[in-house]
Amino acid sequence: MLNMAEGLDRLGALATSPIMARLGAAFAEAGFELAVVGGPVRDALLGRTTNDLDLTTNARPDDILRIVKPLATATWDIGRAFGTIGAKIPGPAGTSEQVEITTYRADSYDGVTRKPTVAFGDRLEDDLTRRDFTVGAMALRLPVPALVDPTGGVEDLVAGVLRTPGDPEVSFGDDPLRMLRAARFASQLGFTVAADTLDAIARLRATIGIVSPERVQAELVKLLATDDPVPGIRILVDTGLMAEFLPEVPALRLEVDEHHHHKDVYEHSLTVLQQAIDLEHERHPGAAPDVTLRLAALLHDIGKPATRKLEPGGGVSFHHHDVKGARLARKRLQALRFDSDTIAAVTQLIEQHLRFFGYAEGAWTDAAVRRYVRDAGDQLERLHILTRADVTTRNAKKAARLRRAYDDIERRIAELAAQEELDSIRPEIDGNRIQEILGIAPGREVGEAYRFLLDLRLDEGVIGPDAAEQRLRAWWSARG
Q: CA–CA distance from 268 to each of 115, 274, 296, 368 (Å)?
């Protein structure tokens, strides 16, 4: 919950930090305005950490570059055409901050290609009202701190509501990707989306088609990287937006047949996703979000709608939905321009996610366990998590049995791996060389010498062939 007094204290600390104070003073001395804008202001009020420092100014790009160059250890102008200059500003005790400073904008969009006609503005308030949501349309003026909030962002922060600064149809018409951002921020911040904003997403969902697949993919990845992506996914599915770029997910909401009963595949998939995230945190605390695993969890059953068969007696089967799902996932992820490594990993996990359940029904030989490990390859740990997360039964006894079975297979994998690591260790001198050094024929004594050298290797590691030969001769001599 937003504590306004504490939030304002954090804003004050941000404005008076050494780097912000230097930048604010430099722009003021040059006769220009400067303000921290958007996410950093929102996150400071909420007490969240932020990794990006975005600033805005009425200075044009050439003026920005002229002002920041004396303060920066590095600058870059890759976004100059859109009014953005980047800089790395040193701080106290060897610290530094990477900032992006953008000229006030007054863009317009053609509504067809989603490419803006770049126009620079002169007023901070005008720049803020063209932003995506009110909670990101706030600014902190520098160097003298002053909060600028022309669209009621603070009130929406307090209420935990996402809404556009103006008419949502105009906002989403300007940039349809903002519809995806609404879902992402809902998950990231734990906010609800205003009813008129949701209605506009539903009406304009088809316009996401003018946004490049790469930008859609980037927003999907950001959503899946949140601690709880499920609320955002529900928004995308319920408004119909998900059907425009990842239709396999809403297709999981299979029609219910009164004579044939099966688990709700859509709800099951969302549960598997959340359980996979919980296991990810449990098994790898502090690690970065594993978006590849989360994609596989969300999509692991997308082959079920195409393979559903209503059986006599009320049963339902989904034969080979793992193989079908892997093919569907590959095609869809390619269309969204995911990289080849991610596509390969996700499709492999989907195709193999049922393998373990054969183990739960009957003990595997060591050879079968080795094949499971071999086939999983470098995706083994993700497969462990996905398979465990795929248990969503409400039958406590069945869930406990499956959990024990997977504990057992992981134990056997670890034991086999340790044994095979030991088995792969060899002395630094082979049997033929032992015979040459000691001048003996094949027999029991060669075996004893070999075991001596193996113990030496296990105890002391690699010592080199020459040292091993000296130790072998000493051992042989001591034997008389």
A: 39, 10, 13, 29
